[in-house]
Specification:
235 residues, 9 helices, mainly alpha, 0% strand
């Protein structure tokens, strides 16, 4: 089956599926060493998903069912990669650098966080939009508001992540190359590219060979960017 079509069972219309992925992420948070690269990203993603849940409960999303479906489908892509790595199965190329370098002493927490965001936004989100459209029987345009709201939240959190995880002024010998390396990547640009990719994948859904080729190339490109973000830096 083409990777584009691989996804977990369709979520329910209530909030229970969101609670399920939150439980998985909290269990990972409790089980993984805090310095592990997956643990660093997982903490970031857990905070995002919890905030999405709070905003859904507060009525901040006009279509709560669509928001839950998109968010759950999105999380399932990440959790499937975690499960694949844990059982020594092949992970998507976009996640491979983070799993391979998750314990490298020369990679900083901020690099781990942004490499995970790069994989999840640059690759998983596009496929999650297609997954959600199939589950809901809708077009991508009908999910654009939910996509934008989640994206806006991620941009806000990215700014906070950079502030919290960037080394302090006493570590300028690290911060200088780190600033140069990470300044080349932008979540807003990645989000815009992801929306275009999701629309292209939806348009290609009846051309499975082309859709699979497009997905593979997207996966490889995002994985290459992740490898650059995880360039080990000197102590």
């Amino acid at each position: 089956m083409p990777y584009l079509e691989q996804s977990a069972p369709a979520p329910d219309t209530a909030g229970a599926p969101l609670d399920g992925v939150l439980r998985r992420m909290r269990a990972l948070d409790a089980a993984l060493p805090s310095r592990d690269g997956i643990a660093v990203f997982n903490r970031v993603y857990l905070a995002v998903t919890e905030e999405v849940g709070r905003r859904i409960d507060a009525g901040r999303f006009a279509d709560a069912r669509a928001a839950i479906t998109l968010d759950v489908r999105f999380a399932e892509r990440y959790l499937a990669a975690v499960d694949a790595a844990a059982s020594d199965r092949r992970t998507p190329a976009c996640w491979r650098p983070l799993f391979q370098l998750r314990r490298h002493p020369g990679v900083r927490p901020l690099q781990f966080a942004l490499a995970g965001i790069n994989a999840h936004i640059g690759h998983d989100l596009a496929l999650a939009v297609v997954d959600a459209c199939r589950s809901l029987g809708c077009e991508p345009a009908e999910l654009e508001d939910e996509f934008d709201r989640v994206g806006d939240l991620l941009v806000t959190l990215e700014e906070r992540i950079r502030e919290e995880l960037m080394p302090g002024p006493d570590l300028l010998q690290i911060a200088d190359p780190l600033t140069h390396l990470l300044g080349a990547w932008s979540l807003e640009r990645a989000r815009d590219a992801t929306w275009s990719a999701a629309r292209a994948l939806w348009a290609l859904r009846r051309l499975p060979d082309l859709a699979e080729e497009f997905t593979d190339r997207l996966d490889a490109a995002v994985g290459f960017a992740g490898r650059m973000l995880l360039t080990p830096l000197p102590d």
